[in-house]
Amino acid sequence: MIDHETLQDAVANRRAEALTFDGLEYARLLEPVNHYPRGSVVLPDGSIIPGYPAIGRIQSLEAGLPRQFDQPFWAEEKIDGFNVRILRWHGRIYAFSRGGYVCAFSTDRVTDFMDPVIFDAEPDLILCAEIAGPDTPYLEGSTPRVAHDVGLFVFDLMRLGQPGFVPQPEKFSLIEHHALPPAPLHGQFTPHDTQALGQLIRRLDEEGAEGLVLKTVDGQHRAKYVTGSSCISDIRVCSEQLLDLPPEYFTNRLTRLAIFLSEHPSRHHTDLEQILGDALLSGLYGAVGQHRRQGHVGHRYRCRFRERANALHFMNHMRATGGRHVAFADDAPRQEDGYWLLEFDRQFDRITGTLASALAGERQYD
Amino acid sequence: MIDHETLQDAVANRRAEALTFDGLEYARLLEPVNHYPRGSVVLPDGSIIPGYPAIGRIQSLEAGLPRQFDQPFWAEEKIDGFNVRILRWHGRIYAFSRGGYVCAFSTDRVTDFMDPVIFDAEPDLILCAEIAGPDTPYLEGSTPRVAHDVGLFVFDLMRLGQPGFVPQPEKFSLIEHHALPPAPLHGQFTPHDTQALGQLIRRLDEEGAEGLVLKTVDGQHRAKYVTGSSCISDIRVCSEQLLDLPPEYFTNRLTRLAIFLSEHPSRHHTDLEQILGDALLSGLYGAVGQHRRQGHVGHRYRCRFRERANALHFMNHMRATGGRHVAFADDAPRQEDGYWLLEFDRQFDRITGTLASALAGERQYD
Known about the structure:
The structure is a homodimer.
Chain A: H1 4-12, E1 16-21, E2 24-29, E3 41-42, E4 48-49, H2 61-68, E5 73-78, E6 82-89, E7 92-97, H3 104-109, H4 118-121, E8 125-132, E9 151-159, H5 168-177, E10 185-189, H6 194-207, E11 211-216, E12 222-226, H7 228-238, H8 248-263, H9 272-294, E13 298-305, H10 308-322, E14 326-328, E15 334-336, E16 339-347, H11 349-359
Antiparallel strand pairs in A: 1-2, 2-3, 3-4, 5-10, 5-11, 6-7, 6-8, 8-9, 11-12, 13-16, 14-16, 15-16
């Protein structure tokens, strides 16, 4: 709980932001308040959806498993999408983004993939899930686990106002009982199962999957480990934004890839260098080509909504947070196959500016 | 000229640094003083070796030539090395680095490549030159123009205390008359010679050369233009330092490469992506391997001196500026083929630290 006065103070000190979504008045934490981490959400009665904590990354199975675990753990697949927390509040389903905003897109779509009747039996449950696929409004890439539109993958359960996660056995049982769509489960391992986990991660690497999240049985102790191919596909989908993302986005993934290949040399296939070079250059060629054609560099996103009102909520949110960088079509959203389809472009300013100057023949000092 | 009092003030305000090299008391400018740029050198009588100015880069020949030039210009080859200014002062030859230090290595070696008798005829002359080759103490890469050891390439002349450069005709005549080793000269062009310059740069790209510096006849107006292959070779020689260099080192070169290839599509040969991917990964594999073997990542440099005393000056300078990152062999410098050979390792801290943590199985939050 965070009481009204504490929240008012936090808002005044810019540790929290007061927001409204379609009549729901809530706040998101920008900094920790009462030990709740940033990204936590304060509901109208002061109850809290805890922020989803960052999961530490290991880059070596051989060294990392014995160092990070002293008990068995589950290996769950990490899906490359965006993280939402889903709950029912006063009869309505809401999905909150990692930062603590109501996500109008996810709020609109999650009931396509899960039956909200679960909240009759478990009214204080919070589903932590990944939304992934080719048609999201936030991501340039997709996952091999979703062929079209989007999918939902539940990987954790929390309870309103309670710290920590629901333990794994209870989580599996609730997921099964209520037919929730789970993140793929790859079995239980011990810290000595380096070989078996190595085989598993090499198979996931071959399939283009992102990687694994390892979780102890009580659900509290975690580590993630990603595939080399996910590093390359991250680079591929973002190379058109090379100058707009923090450059560490690229250097971290290159370093991770080199460590992954040094631990799994059999995954260093003959055309890997070619694939990496292409991942970097294809987006940049595309950016130069876009700039020559249309004078700027951007990316086209598409996603679809069940309710027109949610599409409009989403557009307002993007206009408020993305400003002039986001451009919607004049007729957006338009009806298609029973949904409201929204397409929009996001412009990348720094690469647009650098290419503008370079292609105009200006002199640059670096 | 900078008078004694002005210099004392500048030193007190950290706009200049007072230094000594083997009895020569001089100062280098850390910030502009009396309109002399940073990197300028103040000699004991107050006369000034002007700092070598940065040359603006164009990334498009087609747009850049007409935009930057309204008169004919010379195309001189840009050599991938380090920039020195050479002069004689009270009977001794000194070579100063871009930052304004006496470079003990260059000071020792330049007379291997030029006859100092030129300073009898032209006592106020300053030679601006590139030192390049596999055996320099500063660079990880080399140039195809020098097969072994180092070479000297004179590309500009200045006169002590005078702003600007000696005009091109006088420069060419002095270079020829005194048999100075010039940077390769590729002819004179007009701003409309996009095609001829395109052919030239594509040939240089194929040869692995760095690029061109274009200079008007009066020597004052300049622009540089580099090849795509030089971007790749820069990435290759520095990928083992991926986390220690500013990440823009890599992102700028990738962007430049994409623009180069879009303007010279015939240079986009079929194995270019493979070569780029290998340029990035081979250094990183090497770094991981080095870390597994020896617990840190570094680079081995080698260079040779005529005089043992200069090698010792150089070692003192490196110890003072490079600190614990630089390690010389116990027997350094040692005699070899009539020279004093110096070998040393420089450690890269950030990639060493990141790999230490990753290979020890620690959890990382990014």
